[in-house]
Fold each of these.
Amino acid sequence: MTTTFEALGLIEPLQRALKAENYTTPTPIQSQAIPLLLDGGDLLGIAQTGTGKTAAFSLPMLQRLAAEDIRPAPRTARALILAPTRELAVQIADSIRAYGRHLNLRHTVILGGVGQNPQVKAMARGVDILVATPGRLLDLVNQKHVDLSGTGLLVLDEADRMLDMGFIRDVRKIVAALPRRRQSLLFSATMPADVARLAHDMLRDPMRVEVTPAATTVDRIRQSVYFVEAAGKQSLLSSLLRDGDLSKVIVFTRTKHRANRVAEQLSKGGTAADAIHGNKSQSARQKALERFRSGDSRVLVATDIAARGIDVDGVTHVINFELPNEPESYVHRIGRTARAGADGAAIAFCDPSERTYLKSIEKLTRVRLTIVGDRPEPAPQVETARRESEPAEAKSAPRRRRRRPRRPAVRRAA
Ligand code: AMP
């Protein structure tokens, strides 16, 4: 059953803002969560980016704050949204600005990696909504620049990433600084035990809303794999990029160093590309993201952490230059394309050392990637590496013994 934002109970200024954003129909998580949140209930949302979860929590928050005629006291925030990464925090703030443009509410962002003074200054008057990453927020709370004792609304976004990034202790400390009487929401794509415990401690009688875009999104993505030597990946990438259909491409690497190398090589070859990873300054990351979003750069090379929550529409291709060692990361990575109902393609480069990663990915997604080109001869790179590390006499051992049987060249996508 389709519904409308009006039927969900949203006020006219919000409806108008959504119209300007070209949102015509609420997404499933929005239809389920918005009425409950307007009512003041707690929520456990099992959802990842791409489901429309940001609007699902921001819209009722804006409406509830606007309904009360309260001005925030100095250094306080009426509502707090915690996000694991700087990029996600900035994106959430952008959404709040867009959805709340016809309401008279103040918001600000607190994040690490930039000077704290402007943030202290922004908080001096108090804000209606504070979007923050945990580390810096805790610093400012400890320095008494921020007072959360009256913050009645809390959203914890991407709780599983908070856990991955080691923020859970900080999060717990922040939650302890909030009043017990409050509305709390927790979103997470997955529910590891630590996150479930946190949800149990943080939420009161929550409604659980689960949306599973991974499968549906993944279904819409054409997935393929090239078997290639590690040393041949850069030239394979360049040759794929000769096809103009690859117009907005995110390339994933496992390491920051590799991300830099790939972007440099592309730029040298005349393809506009930027790298984005944890060692880049906040402003460099923002700049790279903006260039990519606007189309000034065609390729964004990213590591997993940096790419978390990156929300850029119209990504045509995701290229896994290096396969992730965690299969869940593959699903997150390829979810950058095929957003908001569009089609997308994901191409994996699999070198001999990555075959086990590929197997885990196929097992998790239950999708067999379409093989492009021939399935290669078995792992010469691995063999070379092994032979070099072996004693000299072992080098003469016949290599063929280690070869695995050749598999058929092409399998069909499931
Ligand atoms: P999120 O899951 O919050 O990261 O949102 C994913 C993307 O969907 C963002 O680009 C939003 O702007 C977009 N979006 C959210 N809700 C809607 C909607 N109801 N209709 C169309 N696009 C939406």
Note: The pocket of adenosine monophosphate is lined by residues 23, 25-27, 30, 49-55, 311, 313, 339-340 (CB under 6 Å).
Amino acid sequence: MEPERLTYAQNVRGFLPPDEGDVLYRAASHLEVPGPLLEIGSYCGKSAIYLGTAAQEQGRILYALDHHRGSEENQHGWEHHDPDLVDHELGKLDTLPTFRRAVHDADLESVVVAIVGHSVQVAQHWDTDLAFLFIDGGHGIQPAQDDYTWWVPKVQVGGFLAIHDVFPDPADGGRPPYECIYLPAMSSGNWIEEKTQGSLRILRRIS
Ligand code: MG
């Protein structure tokens, strides 16, 4: 990635550390199967800049799926709440304007396509095989189970699944991405682990 874009990505608001962003970008940069990339949980666009850059370099599209009302931990009174992101007229979080601005300023509007909605509602009508899926959406049990059930099978053999916030040790963080996405994928026999960086896991589909 060119240095200017890298610096830009690192400065976009979000929860993906630079070393994990780098691994995410690299994993998405050499895809061998056709199809688009899709991320669940775009928030303010940080991962979309890393993945969008990888998509752009390969002439692919990144679909960036988020309802843009924030996850549980982003709501008022929670650990990751950011009052700047509240639509004060509605009294609700709205990360879409910040996301759009980030994608615009990175000059990625022709590559990154926002899908504003809930994961399962979109998945129910989504038939396109994916080359790369990044799951960083709702971190509760139900959203994690839903993302596994609905989206993981859409990655084609030879494609990649990246999962964020995987914490095998409960002392490090919440369990659902580990218990409801990572473990079922690994025990299915369809995936092998390619790379670990912090709480990021990169799996490749082998069958
Ligand atoms: Mg995350």
Note: The CA atoms of residues 22 and 50 lie 8 Å apart.
